[in-house]
What does this fold into?
Amino acid sequence: MKKALLAGAALNMVFAGMAFADITIGVAGPMTGQYAAFGEQLKTGAEQAVADINAAGGVNGEKLVLSVGDDACDPKQAVAVANSFAGQKVPFVAGHFCSGSSIPASQVYAEEGIIQISPASTNPDFTDKRPGDGIFRVCGRDDQQGQVAGAFIAEKFKDGVVAVLNDKSAYGKGLADETEKYMKEAGKEPALVESYTAGEKDYSSLITKLKQAGVTLVYIGGYHTEAGLIARQMKDQGVTATIMSGDALVTDEYWAITGDAGEGTLMTFSPDPRKNEAAAPVVAELDKAGKSAEGYVLYTYAAIQAWAEAAKKAGSTEYEAVTKSLNEGGYQTVIGDITFDDKGDVKLPGYVMYEWKAGKYDYLVAAQ
It folds into this structure.
């Protein structure tokens, strides 16, 4: 009888341990390197989401634990991070940031039965060519962003001299190509199309070409680090053209690089989630901790929110069950009510135009 009681007690301890086991989830992005500002955004959003979900009871009675993967926006490193997450048996990853990282990593996640929701990868191939039905994103796409940018350029810079630049990355070139395509469709031809190498510090030869062409608008398909240097060096060389770019400028680091040279920079980004009523408590909590809800912080928070709610609805963290729940959609998040289409793209309002002024970005025209 004593042995039976002991065995029963041991069994109860096992089940108790199972009931309250932790669930490790991942967040992946450039935690180091020149784009680390965006990795910090993803990490900040993920940490706050995990803290808030755990404070509310966790997922199906279990607490979340966050594992952080650093891909440095390098495709090979992204695959290594994905394999590391697979080894940790994570059911879900919020990431990656760069499309050039998300796309190869998605192959690993699909093979390993890990759900991936990117907060920030906008290249159309990420979902158009997704390797499995557990691959999603909560941000928009470059073809949507390019359409808004191209139409804006054709209308507002109809008589201007436009240059289109790209950094040859999956994100930068993809965005520049889409913007150029829609600009041409709207009847505006670029005067100059050039590529540059990410990571360089001196863009004087490129700026000389811009100056010789007499450009009045420079569209940059690339990240804030190089765009910031180009803006600053343009000012130094007396080029007064307006700079325009995409969502990779949504970090205060852009202004830290440009200073006053960034004044008037235009960029496309989704409607600012910081202005959502549902996001107000999260923004306030981050502010209290001395952290910013800029850029993709709230998109990362929302990605984890959506997965957690889908797992609760499924009563499981198993791949097939949660994927099915995600595809059914209808999850309230800090960026809005999330529903995905059959490609894994989120159905949310599209892109709007922003302007940098006095070190901050805000709508150029109020979001509709």
About this structure: The chain has a mean pLDDT of 93.
